[in-house]
């Protein structure tokens, strides 16, 4: 009697060794006889069997199985070797298909994929409908252009012509061709070939511009660069801000190294650091300091506070509140020094409140306090309150409150000495000495309150002493060697010293004190000592020579 298959006993469970027998029922439309065969022979047949269109009817491990329907895995899938296909490969849930071609989704959920040859590696809510796009993972990342890449992160977006890249981070955007955002948050590469490496709230809006890091910075002109820092803005072509805070570059090829609130609007200008500095002249340089201003072309400020250079080729090395408004001028340091001369080449090395003004040209102040010169080639080496006026080639070496008023005048030192003559006069030192108007080529070597003054006075000399005077309209070539209260009022006259002497006759001389001249070409003295042994004892036959004849003095008549 026949037995139903369902009534057959259950044999051993897999694995099988292949020699087990299975019942085979032939096509009931034929003889419908039942035969037996080994399990291995049945499997061999099935593994090679095909359907009506030549497709295999049974999947096998060691052959290419051509699935014509979607395959769903109820558990994990392990692939050993290469997994390939000619259509889309999608792993994940809630995937939206926008007619992708050879697209891939590696995992995750709620993705949207379209275009050709695009890939979403994983994550959640990532989207692209363009060709050759890669989104590695992350959440809510979007690509709307071809050949773009988002590595991961959250809420990143590439909207460019092509080839934009975002490495990761959050809320970053690339919207220029080949624009790159490396990471960070809320960064934007908004122009072709622009780059933001990382940081937060950074923007690169210029073609080929770069922002390397920091926060709230911006490179807005082609080729500009922000290295890092906070709220820096590179607004000049090929300009650079290396770091710092609130710095701004608007000049082409300008540079700010760091610091705070510095501004470089000048072409090729440079600020190394510091705070609130401004380089607005073409090629101007500020190395550092605070509140410095370089407005002249090719001007330079080294450091310091509130220094200013406003004309081309000028320099302030440092100090406080120094200012030059003249071409090719120099201030080394100090405080409150000022060059405002109309011509170039002036210099103040240091000191405080020194001034070169007027028509100064190549004028010089070495140091000191409140010194001044306004003339060409004039110098005040140091001291306080010295004034070389508008004189040319005049010099005051030092001292206090000394003045010169005409060309080639010199005061070496002392206090309150004054040269007001017509040029080429000299005061060596002392106090309150004066060479007055219409006087030239005269000298007061020193002393106190000595005075040379007179109409067309020339070549006067006072060696020292106190309150000596050479004056009048006819006192040229007068000499007072020293003493007190001596006065020469005649030409070619001399007072050797003493006190209270007066010469009013030409070519007269006084030796002693309290003597007033009585005639020209005469030596005046209260007492006269002649060495008897030294006098000739016979007539020398030279008119005017004194000789001794015994105890008598005689004068030769020639």
- CATH C-level name of the domain at 409-527: Mainly Beta
- Characterize the main sheet: 29 strands, parallel
Average pLDDT works out at 90
Instruction: Note the beta-strand portion.
Output: 25-35%
> What is the CATH T-level topology of the domain at 409-527?
Alkaline Protease, subunit P, domain 1
The CATH architecture of the domain at 409-527 can be named as: 2 Solenoid
Number of helices, where a helix is a run of at least 4 consecutive DSSP H or I residues: 1
Low-confidence region ranges: none
Count the E strands.
Answer: 61
Radius of gyration: 53 Å
End-to-end Cα distance: 195 Å
- Shape call: rod-shaped
- What structural category characterises the helix and strand content? mainly beta
Helix content: under 10%
Explain this structure.
This protein is mostly beta strands. Among the domains are: 89-190, Alkaline Protease, subunit P, domain 1; 327-401; 409-527, Alkaline Protease, subunit P, domain 1, CATH 2.150.10; 529-558, no CATH class. The protein has 1 helix and 61 strands. Strand 60 and strand 61 (552-555) form a beta hairpin. The radius of gyration is 53 Å and the shape is rod-shaped. The mean pLDDT is 90.
